[in-house]
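Annotated sample (chain length 115).
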Amino acid sequence: MVRGKAGWMTASSTRALLWAVCLSLHLIWTNSITQAAIYHYTGACIHKDKVFLPGQTFFRGCHKCYCHKAGFVCFSPKKPTSWPEKCQRIPTECGYRVVYRENPDLECRAYSWIG
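Output written by the structure step:
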């Protein structure tokens, strides 16, 4: 058990939280998925009366959630804050895409994101 500001955390809760932080950093660095903010829920991994197992994912609205042994973590969509001048940000149902102005079917890499 680990002593934190909010009290004692079990080793599995600590590992789950560390996993969530590492995953979010990986997602931000690789820009493979547009998600940023982390929300951690303890207890059973249940959403809309469906039980999910560790390793499974589901969506709570626009938040993508990942199940683990101690509960689940959810990530909110990120918002691009800067991109090349030849590109533009367009809203989607659950976030944004950055695309080339001349070819909106082709994604453009944003310089920075905020979550």
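Annotation: The first helix runs from residue 11 to 30.
Annotation: Residues 24-34 have pLDDT under 50 and may be disordered.
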